[in-house]
Amino acid sequence: MKSAQRPDNEYARQKSLESMGILTSKADPELDRITRVAQRIFGSEIVAISLLDNDRQFFKSNINQPTTETPRDISFCGHVINDDVPFIVEDATSDQRFTDNPLVTGVPHVRAYAGVPLTNPDGFKIGALCVVDSVARTFSAEDIQILEDLGHWAETTIAIRYGARSPQQVLDDLEPAKHRMLIDPLTGIWNKTGIVEFLHRELINARLQNTPLAIYRFEIDQFDKLEQNYGDETAENIIQAISAAITSSLRDRDVVGHIDGSDFACLMPTVREEQTSFLGFKLCDTVREQCRFYDADGNPTRITISVGATWAPPVAKQHFTANQILGVAQEALGSAKSQGIENVVYKALNIPAT
C-alpha cells in the first residue's frame, strides 16, 4: 500500500480548513443534496464529500459509507488533494498503490474510485467529492466532466455557507481545545488569535460577496493610571464591562475581541468607507455612556477609549494579510492616543491602483 504524500503547504492548508468551522458544524443538507444527485447520475454504491483533517479522512456528507471517518493514510481522497485534476482508479486490485489497502481487502471492498479535489476560498484543497464502487468500472470523459461540475457546486456551497456564519454560530461549533485557543478567558470574547482568524475569514467573505469591511483597534485611555488608582481587580472589571458593553451594542455579524491588556479589536462587515469614522465615535459613546465606575467615596470615574480605524474594500484580500490590516488599524490607534483621550483616527489601506 502506498499512502498519499502530504501537500507541501500542509500546515497552512490544515489551518485554513480548521478556520472554516466545517469540521465541527452539523450535517449540511445542501452538501447532502449534491451527494444524492451524484449517486443518481453515477449509480455508485458509495458517494462522499470528504475532508482531509490531520490524520483522518472525515466524511462531511456520504451515502452508504459505513463509517464517518477513516485513517487518512489509507484514504483514496488523500491522493486527490495533491493534484488539480480528477483522480481515477478503475480497478484497485490491479493498482499497486491500493492492492493491500484495508479499504480494498476489507469493507467497503473498494474497486472503482473517481474523485475531484475541493478547493476552499483560500485556495487550499481541503477534500474531495468521490464516487466509489465494489466492482471495477471505467469512467468516460463525460462522467469526469459531470463529476467536476458537481465538485464546483460543492465548492460554491462550502464557500457561501461557511463564510456566512455569525460569530455566535462559529462559537457554538468550537471544540473545547479550539475554544481555549481562540477565546479570551477574562472576557469570554475572541482573543487575538480568534480575531486574526475571523478577519481572515471576513476578508474572504468580502471578496466572495463584493462587500467591504471596517476594522477597529481601540484601547482604554490612561489605563495605567486606572490600575494604579483602583487596583488590578477593578481594572479587570473595567475590561469586562467594556467587553460586555461593546458586544451588546454590535450587530450579530460584528466581531469584538480582547487583544491584550487594555487593547481590543472590532470587525464590522458591510460598513461603507464614509461610515467608518462615525462608527468609531459610536464605540467611544458606548463606553463613555455604559461603563461607569465609582471610587470608594462614591465619586464617578470617567472611562473612555481611543480608536484607530481602517477600511477594507472587497479586493483587500489580494493585497493584505489579516495581520497587516490589523497593523494599519493599530497605527491609526497610535495616532489617536498621541492626540489625547477619546479620539478616533482613520487610516486608509494603501490599495495599489489597477
From TrEMBL:
Transmembrane segments: none annotated. InterPro entries: GAF (IPR003018), GAF-like_dom_sf (IPR029016), GGDEF_dom (IPR000160), Nucleotide_cyclase (IPR029787), Rev_trsase/Diguanyl_cyclase (IPR043128). Residues 211-349 form the GGDEF domain. NCBIfam families: GGDEF. This is GGDEF domain-containing protein. It comes from Thalassospira lohafexi. The lineage of its organism: Bacteria, Pseudomonadati, Pseudomonadota, Alphaproteobacteria, Rhodospirillales.
